Each structure stands twice: as structure tokens, then as C-alpha cells.
Amino acid sequence: DTEVTQTPKHLVMGMTNKKSLKCEQHMGHRAMYWYKQKAKKPPELMFVYSYEKLSINESVPSRFSPECPNSSLLNLHLHALQPEDSALYLCASSQEVFGGLSDSPLHFGNGTRLTVT
Amino acid sequence: QKEVEQDPGPLSVPEGAIVSLNCTYSNSAFQYFMWYRQYSRKGPELLMYTYSSGNKEDGRFTAQVDKSSKYISLFIRDSQPSDSATYLCAPEGPANAGKSTFGDGTTLTVKP
């Protein structure tokens, strides 16, 4: 089991649905991330939150909306997705984003496998 | 050109073999070099990381960095079927702080 918990594990949604992915960590990490991973590809960064503020948005379409309610929680709100958005969505956390990089490897959850029909 | 190029694999070896997984990178600002292991249907997990050039050993695993040639390697000795996974190299530095740049991954299968 990982220290980063993601729910749900699987999600099937239609293109008109609104759903949310949730992520939780209790390691006291101050940076949290959303990654998207397609089959046989490496994770692609979507968003980074540092101290609960959005610090990096990798030009992600607005149908993906991140939210960081507190330092332990990270949500990804989904609306009007396309079939090509089907992927494994990974949440990760690390101690810090800037500085102390050697102490800041990423801790990943096991992801939410999303299918858009 | 990608910032990180990883030997594509897949790689299939018999149990007990020595495995060498390799990456090259182009950004000379990278200072920290991570290796993540990802089992099927799981998230990546940090396996090892090194700072700057040199070797780091942890049990059967050795990470090696040569900054002069921008070459990163992970060696697995006495490979086990439980090592079967995808291995991702991920260098990091001030230029991409917070944005681990992953190699495409090498899928390893260790056959009993």
C-alpha cells in the first residue's frame, strides 16, 4: 500500500458527466501533483500545487480543474471530457517543490483508471 | 530532441542475470537522478536516487551517473522475477524543479 491514497480506483464516465478524482496524503508533504499516464508511456505532468497554491499548470485543457482544499488533499474535477482523456491519473506528493531536491522524490498513489465513453 | 532518452526495451532476461538499464539526457543543469519502478496497474515508486556523478549501491541495485557524458545507468544484480516491472529514469535540477522529466521507461521481464 502507498502513503498516497487515490479514489476511486476506477471510473467510467460519459462525455457530459461531471466527476471528481480525490487524493490524500498524510506525510506532511507541501507539494502535490497530478500526472496523466497513457498506456506504455511515462507520466505526464498536469498540475503542481506548492503550499496549497497552484504553481505549475502544464497547459492542461480547462475541462480539467484542480483544487487543493488543504495541505493533505488534492482534487481533480472533470467535466465534458473526451474519449482521448481516458488514462491513468496519478497523484503524487513530495516534501518541497523548490529547494532540497534531494529530499523531494515523488511519492505516487496507485492512480485512478479513467475511461471516458 | 527529448530531454531524456531511455533505452526502449522491452528486456527479457533469465533469473539471476545482471541487468543494465540506461538513459541519456541533454540538460546539463540536471543534478539529481531518480529511478522509479512501476509494477503493472500500480503507481511508480522511487527505487533510488543519486546526486551528481558517481555510484550509489542499495542491495542488488546500483545507480551510476556520468555527468560528463550525460549518461545514467541502473544495474540489477542477481535479477529476480519480482524485478519484472517498468523502470523510469527521471533527472531533476533547478531548471525543471518540481517537474520530473521521465524517460519513456524500459519494461523488464525476469523469467524464472
Walk me through what this model shows.
Chain A is mainly β. Helices cover 0% and strands 55% of the residues of chain A. Chain A has no helices and eleven strands. In chain A, strands 2, 4, 5, 6, 9, 10 and 11 form a seven-stranded mixed beta sheet that branches. The termini of chain A are far apart. By secondary structure, chain B is mainly beta. Helix content of chain B is 0%, strand content 53%. Chain B is built from no helices and ten strands. Chain B has strands at residues 4-6, 11-14, 19-25, 32-38, 45-51, 54-58, 61-66, 71-76, 85-92, 106-111. Chain B has a five-stranded antiparallel beta sheet, with no helix packed on it. Chain B starts with a strand and ends with a strand. The mean pLDDT of chain B is 91. Chain A binds chain B through residues 2, 4, 31, 33, 40-43, 45, 48, 50, 55-56, 58, 90, 92, 94, 97-98, 101-102, 105-111, and chain B through 31-32, 34, 36, 41-46, 49, 51, 88, 92-94, 97-100, 102-105, 107.
Give the structural class of chain A. Answer: mainly beta
On the 0 to 100 scale, the average pLDDT of chain A is 91
Strand portion of chain B, in percent? over 45%
Q: What oligomeric assembly is this protein in?
A: heterodimer
Order of helices and strands of chain A: EEEEEEEEEEE
End-to-end Cα distance of chain A, whole Å, is 30 Å
Quick one: how many beta strands of chain B? 10
User: Which percent range fits the helix content of chain A?
Assistant: under 10%
- How many helices of chain B? The count is 0
The 3D shape of chain A can be described as globular
> pLDDT below 50 for ≥5 consecutive residues: which ranges of chain B?
none
What Rg of chain B is obtained from the alpha carbons, in whole angstroms?
Answer: 13 Å
